[in-house]
Amino acid sequence: MKIKNPKINFYYSVISVCFFLIACQKSREALPTNVVMIIADDLGWSQIGCYGSSFYKTPNIDELAKSGIRFTNAYSAASICSPTRAAIMTGKYPARLNLTDFIPGNNPKNKPLRTPENWQKFLPLKEVTIAEKMQSLGYLTGFFGKWHLSKEKLPPESLSHNPKMQGFNESFVTYKPSSNLIQHWQMENNDFHNVDTLTKRGLEFLNENQKSPFLLILSHNTIHDPLLENKKMINKYENSKGSDKMENNPIIGAMIETLDKSVGQIIKKLKSLGLFYNTLLIFCSDNGGKHKHALQTPFKKGKGWLYEGGIRVPLIISWPKKIKKSIVSEEITSSIDFLPTILKVANSDLSQKNQYDGIDLSPIFTSQTNLINRNELFWHYPHYHNGSGMKPASAIRWKNYKLIEWHEPTLYNTDNQIELYDLSLDQGESNNLFLKKPEIAIQMRNKLKVWINEVKAKMPEVNEVQITDKVKGGTFTNLNVSFTY
Ligand SMILES: [Ca+2]
Predict the structure, then answer these.
(1) Which of 370, 400, 432 is the last residue of a domain?
(2) What separation in Å is there between the alpha carbon of 310 and the centre of ligand 1?
(3) pTM attached to this predicted model
(4) Which strand ranges, in their side-by-side order, compose the sheet holding 401-406?
(5) Residues less than 5 Å from ion ligand 1, measured at CB
(6) Of 330, 346, 370, which residue sits at a domain end?
(7) Across 115-119, average pLDDT
């Protein structure tokens, strides 16, 4: 029967359109969530506009922060590359994986301590990675960029443990620019750090896989050494206000601008494909910035160190479907949290215990109180890091406190074994509270000891063969506290 009344016809049309829109919304809500992770290399916490820098220009990263959550207490699982990347892939502490140094590391013989020799110098295939888990949930997975978890950097030796063997459908591994690793896509005065190459691969992956749920990891080589960028861009930063400050490095400024542009291109593509709304987009760094190039103010030291400069990193998570705009979170997070968080967002069952050390961060997405209930976070570095001067140490963050234990003085029973800081008052870790708050230090050191035993962390030992570096300090007798391992 045809309805002749134009008024009724109009109402029918409106109702039909409403039903159609509701149906569209419902089908959009029911779609699986895509995941894009952008990892910067050696990018410091303070080297981004939305983290307070007025020198480094990051409009796209700042915009991303406005669309979601900016974390102010995010940590990398290690102060150097490979262990953090292993933690991202597995959700486990590097110490539990026994993958505690950059691959292949260095093994100095003339130091006061003998460092563990049999640490894991590649990510074993038996480890179940985030990509393998997502594949089992029906996701297509892509990895483009820095991997640093194979036995060797270059093929053919790298192939046995490259991303394709760890659950990625598509992969393309790149390396930092250097004379012996120069590749055909690295040309003089062009794409110094592979940013354009990686971005192009990322955009192609999004185009090709837009119809299926996907996990895309874009793992940049920038802003890692060597410091190289287009001269015109460097000039712009040389002439910028603040270029004379020790925190501000014009070449790094230019490198960060290129990185930021790439982030913008990925966001633009996701929006143009209608995918931004239901994509969990994680932007992070693998460790702190190198303080020899640029001070990591307000933090002490930088890459390599267990001071905040080495491990406090930028982290932004956007997911417009669930996360409100412009949230700033002070929750303490770590690289080990990405795996459980991503799995939760992909509707995976997280009930199987002991598969990972991280915590699902998704409660932070919808609520701003009583969030993830993290009590402590730990780090373990039983090596010497030539590049930064870092010595063997372990650390714990507990509430506002951070304790670092230096293994040289501990094993030689000399002074300065423990440093304790209240980060709520002293972000720059300049006021060691060890003598003022020994009860807190003892409590935290005991927690650290329990964790070291639990993850079976490999410890350094006294090097009795050849000692050329003397351990500084006298005997450890002036304190009324005693520690034992
Ligand atoms: Ca790094």
Answers:
(1) 370
(2) 10
(3) 0.91
(4) 376-381, 393-398, 401-406, 418-422
(5) 41-42, 81, 286-287
(6) 370
(7) 94
